[in-house]
């Protein structure tokens, strides 16, 4: 079984994934799993070489393909249940955020298996920033450039990203859980019910 958890920064993905993994013996597959790609990604970001949207996206795609072919696919074939800390919805959203077409992003990810359970954790922009703060300039600068103020620029960036996640959640029939309204225990209990139901139907 493959479970994907997507959503903007500060939605509560990491907290939920840790809880579910320990309670249901799920193998966690983290974002940016390939150390080699992560090394070059960091070096290119420092040199300002990721300003080209296509270069940036191809680096993300390279990491995702490595993770899928070397880690995810073998685990699926072995019958091991896994939980993904972001999956292809996140790559589609990040590609669109940088001006790439949805068709290009989707076609580039067509090799990946659809998740058995797809969850998008939603949260208001204000709460997301309150939980995670604002990253350094190198992160928010690559987002929207309509504002020169750091807070407003990053807030706008998250707002657009949130809207895209909700759009794709609807398109892919993913389950949306709003962590503004649900506490950690509520979300965990809902997930527990989903997993038990999924396991009983296998």
Structural class: alpha/beta
Query: Beta-strand percentage?
Result: 5-15%
- State the end-to-end distance: 9 Å
What is the H/E string? EHEHHEHHEHHHEH
Question: What's the SSE blueprint?
Answer:
Blueprint lengths: L1 E5 L6 H12 L2 E3 L5 H12 L6 H25 L4 E4 L2 H10 L4 H7 L8 E6 L2 H8 L4 H4 L9 H22 L3 E4 L5 H17 L2
Parallel strand pairs: 1-3, 1-4, 2-3, 4-5
Helix pairs in contact: 1-9, 3-4, 4-8
Key words describing this protein structure:
single chain; 5-stranded parallel beta sheet; 202 residues; alpha/beta
Please tell me about this protein's structure.
The structure is a single chain. This protein has helices at residues 13-24, 35-46, 53-77, 88-97, 102-108, 125-132, 137-140, 150-171, 184-200; strands spanning 2-6, 27-29, 82-85, 117-122, 175-178. The protein is α/β, with parallel strands linked by helices and 202 residues long. The protein has a 5-stranded parallel β-sheet, with helices on both faces.
What is this structure, in a nutshell?
58% of the residues lie in helices and 11% in strands.
């Amino acid at each position: 079984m493959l479970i994907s958890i997507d959503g903007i920064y500060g939605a509560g993905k990491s907290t939920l994934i840790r809880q579910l993994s320990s309670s249901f013996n799920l193998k966690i597959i983290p974002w940016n799993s390939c150390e080699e790609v992560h090394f070059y990604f960091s070096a290119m970001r420092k040199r300002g070489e990721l300003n080209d949207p296509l270069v940036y996206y191809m680096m993300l795609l390279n990491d995702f393909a490595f993770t899928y072919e070397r880690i995810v696919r073998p685990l699926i074939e072995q019958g091991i249940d896994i939980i993904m800390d972001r999956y292809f919805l996140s790559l589609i959203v990040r590609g669109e955020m940088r001006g790439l077409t949805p068709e290009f992003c989707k076609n580039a990810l067509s090799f990946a298996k659809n998740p058995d359970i797809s969850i998008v954790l939603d949260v208001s922009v204000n709460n997301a920033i309150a939980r995670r703060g604002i990253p350094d300039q190198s992160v928010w600068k690559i987002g929207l450039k309509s504002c020169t103020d750091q807070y407003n620029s990053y807030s706008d960036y998250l707002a657009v990203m949130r809207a895209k996640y909700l759009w794709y959640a609807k398109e892919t029939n993913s389950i949306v859980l709003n962590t503004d309204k649900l506490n950690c225990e509520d979300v965990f209990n809902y997930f527990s019910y989903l997993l038990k139901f999924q396991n009983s139907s296998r």
